[in-house]
Amino acid sequence: DADVTQTPRNRITKTGKRIMLECSQTKGHDRMYWYRQDPGLGLRLIYYSFDVKDINKGEISDGYSVSRQAQAKFSLSLESAIPNQTALYFCATSEPGGGGETQYFGPGTRLLVL
Amino acid sequence: GESVGLHLPTLSVQEGDNSIINCAYSNSASDYFIWYKQESGKGPQFIIDIRSNMDKRQGQRVTVLLNKTVKHLSLQIAATQPGDSAVYFCAEGADSWGKFQFGAGTQVVVTP
């Protein structure tokens, strides 16, 4: 979805390096999410933010940190990358509504940690 | 533990036939369900949703059925086309949570 962009799209890094994945959205949504996807597993929530001042840990936050710089921007950092953080990372946005809350996903960042 | 390269279940469907993809959800408190389609190299894309006060909802060529008694969700795709080849997965959530639990997905392969 062009309304949610992620940079970089692909990244190769070495063990111990700190890296940042960035997400921007033009949908005007308050809620933003970071997920990782591994082969054969469902999306797992790393961090989520309901507004600029509200950040929450998801089910697998260890080794990650986030920054919500503005309503439109939500960055994910790997403090010291390790090989088992090799995965596909997705950013998503949503806006709560009476009829439900659909999440809109970015195209993903493929990360390889050597 | 981390992934060891699990394989997704695969549904092979002939072009023009109907597809049925199943999903068992885990939380009886979930009141909102979504089906997503994920094509290779792309992010998940919303297909259709359903709230727990409904049993069935139809969209264009797709129907979602919800059975709350057995916590089961299904997605039916009518007249499956080559462009329907993708991974399909369900998500369950609740308004009070603001977040979702995702299934691993089913790989749908459409053959001519």
**How many extended strands of chain A?**
11
What's the overall average pLDDT of chain B, rounded?
89
Form type of chain B: globular
| E-strand count of chain B | 10
Shape of chain A: globular
Radius of gyration of chain B: 14 Å
Give the ordered list of helices and strands of chain B: EEEEEEEEEE
Brief summary:
By secondary structure, chain A is mainly β. Helices cover 0% and strands 55% of the residues of chain A.
Describe this structure in words.
The complex is a heterodimer of chains A (114) and B (112). Chain A is an all-beta fold and 114 residues long. Chain A has strands at residues 4-7, 10-13, 19-25, 31-37, 44-51, 54-57, 64-70, 73-78, 87-94, 103-105, 109-113. In chain A, strand 9 (87-94) and strand 10 (103-105) form a beta hairpin. Chain B has 112 residues and is mainly beta. Helix content of chain B is 0%, strand content 51%. Chain B has no helices and ten strands. Chain B has strands spanning 10-14, 19-24, 32-38, 45-51, 56-58, 62-67, 72-77, 86-93, 100-102, 106-111. The radius of gyration of chain B is 14 Å and the shape is globular. The N and C termini of chain B lie far apart (39 Å). Chain A binds chain B through residues 1, 4, 31, 33, 35, 38-45, 48, 50, 58, 84, 90, 94, 96, 99-108, and chain B through 2-3, 5-8, 32, 34, 41-46, 49, 51, 89, 91, 93, 95, 98-105.
Write the layout of secondary structure elements.
The complex is a heterodimer of chains A (about 110) and B (about 110).
Chain A: E1 4-7, E2 10-13, E3 19-25, E4 31-37, E5 44-51, E6 54-57, E7 64-70, E8 73-78, E9 87-94, E10 103-105, E11 109-113
Chain B: E1 10-14, E2 19-24, E3 32-38, E4 45-51, E5 56-58, E6 62-67, E7 72-77, E8 86-93, E9 100-102, E10 106-111
Parallel strand pairs in B: 1-10
Antiparallel strand pairs in B: 2-7, 3-4, 3-8, 5-6, 6-7, 8-9, 8-10
Record keyword descriptors for this entry.
A: 114 residues; seven-stranded mixed sheet; four-stranded antiparallel sheet; B: mainly beta; 0% helix; globular
